[in-house]
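Input chain follows. Return structure tokens only.
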Amino acid sequence: MIEWAVDGDTLHVTDADNAELAVTGADLDVSSSDSDVSRPVDETVAVTTDELRFPHAVVYAFSLEREEQYELDPGGEPLALSSGEYVVDIDTEIKAYLQFTGDATIEKTDDYEEIVVSFPDRMRVILGVRCRHELPAGTITVPDSPSAIAAAITHMAASHKTNRPDRSYPTLRGHPSLIERGERLEIPDCIRADTPDHGIELLLPPDYESLFVAAPLAYYLQATVRTTDEGPDSRSGTDPDRPRLRLLDHGREEELSPMPDLERDVERLLRKTFFLDCLARNAGPYGTTLSESSLLAALGLDASVLYHASPQDRLATYLDVPYAAIKHRLPEWHLSTYVSPTYDSAETLPFLLDRLSMIYTPQTSELEGQELVERSLEDFYRGEGGPAEFASGIEATPAVGSGGVPGRSRATTGQVASVDIVKPELRSGRTHGWLADGVPIDVFKSTPAAYHNRLEFLEQTSDSTSICVVLNDPEMAGEHDDVAEIYRQRSEELTIDLTVTESLETAALARVLEDDNDFVHYIGHCETGGLCCPDGTLATSSLDRCNAQTFFLNACGSFYEGMNLIEKGSVAGAVTVTKVLNDHAVKVGSTFAKLLVHGFSIERAMVLARRRIMMGKDYAVVGDGTHSLTQAESRNPTTARLEELGESGNDGQYLLSLDCYSTRVTGSYYFPHTETNDYAYLCGNESNFTLTEPELATMLAETEASVIYDGDIYWSKELSKRFDR
């Protein structure tokens, strides 16, 4: 759902996920339009002006007459388009396309903050926009039957907008239809009509374990899924109950391993196919200059041939590529979710497929002795989760806010709820979700309610992001002051409605949670009876409904209160699983706040924030950890690691490692802004640059990223001033 409005010379475009695109122009004249744009869009408007300014983005121009493609030079050189008919692809948070006939100049401003499209005279152009996050179309009803679940998985692919390698772009897949439980299989006619049949089949044993694990591969390949008790006969001499991938036109049948090794086979097939699609798509109209593209030539593959091949022919070629030949080039997979393989869990499949999550069966073991402490310290000192995600040696000195007391617990004299933590058996992935029993470390603990709640919030419209900070203990004013200032600063760039409150009694705190707030940051105490207030405790289970979209309960032992908020209506939130030190809570709270309002997902913001303290495992995320409160400046939040190279004889030089990925938009790419860089990189792959001090200052000023440097986390634009001398 796209909405637009004009305020003076600015066109504001918003979608259902609170993403916003602001386009400015001189004497802007905007009106509704039913004109076609030769790209998939959700809304078009006619704009009359001689200049349009967009947020910083990667830009391509396509000549509709000569079938030629042009790219705006990342180094800043303007792109001059001679007279003709063009579509200009502007890769902003809300996808934008300009279609016009004439000549134009496209350039970046000197500070790289904006893209300027100018015309010789005032002219009428068509602006098409497309939401990157969609609501599901229709609902499939399934009985408690593996064959019915197989049919539902088959029809998940009806949401794809293309069968070409472009499907690796998140905006061209779409949200799969919902699944609900019922007495018989019911698939709406519109979903049946949109479900492709490419002659690719997955035959799987009639059990939920195999079906859930294989669902992401089936969805991405747009394969027909059948259970072996109803599928056609296999080749002579093969085990009829063994999982198989069939290419019907080729007469080809690939045997897959039974569970549990099916998890490994599915992971490798999906990662390989997805990655090669990301390379082959560059022969199409949405291509870019990827640093990874040279691998195709090394494998003897032609991007153009692959791009125009049928899905079955293309997959046959991919199957012949040894996994070992590309393993070292694969981006780390963005998301893995561990799901109880039961009929009741089937309703979560569309949400996981929308994120293109790997799905694994959950397995846990008990933590031994001081293992929780040891793992916390290991993360603190060495870091994990990707080379550029965290720096080693983040300083162990406590961060004390103006109201913080070093070493003092945030707990009251009352009893704090205890949580039995278990150790999960984690497979590959940057981020891990848990849809099963138990409370594991290193994952976000979700529920089906969290995903359904997210859909409800997407269907609501709002002109701003509402944030409420609640301080219910005056001795914790340090965190209160810090986070309030962070939210105020961010409100200068985003439309944020900030409310700051103190000492709320139970009824008032209940109203805050029941009101339509996008984020509630609670600072105080929590006991077994609930969140502490001057007149007692508020049990979140007593709420009729929670309308706070996201939250942070920065209080000791708030896990169960947070889980209650998810069941009552929230999407995601940050909690603690035990007692926490007040100075640690201040440091985590302020870092989490800054990352959250700059577009980081709830889980990623918490993972980064909690690694600033020694006992980071005391903090966790509940609900859909992939959810983001706001949009990032550069669409995909970026983390950087900065190291000085002076000790190696390279005085005045620095190694800057960039890591850009998102659990929501896998398949996207990012373009580092250095004077010598000519390539884009797939999200999930790190890029490294050796820079002088002046080059570093310029790049940090032009980049929106959290930077790990000298034992702490900084925001790039703030850090750039240190090197601008």
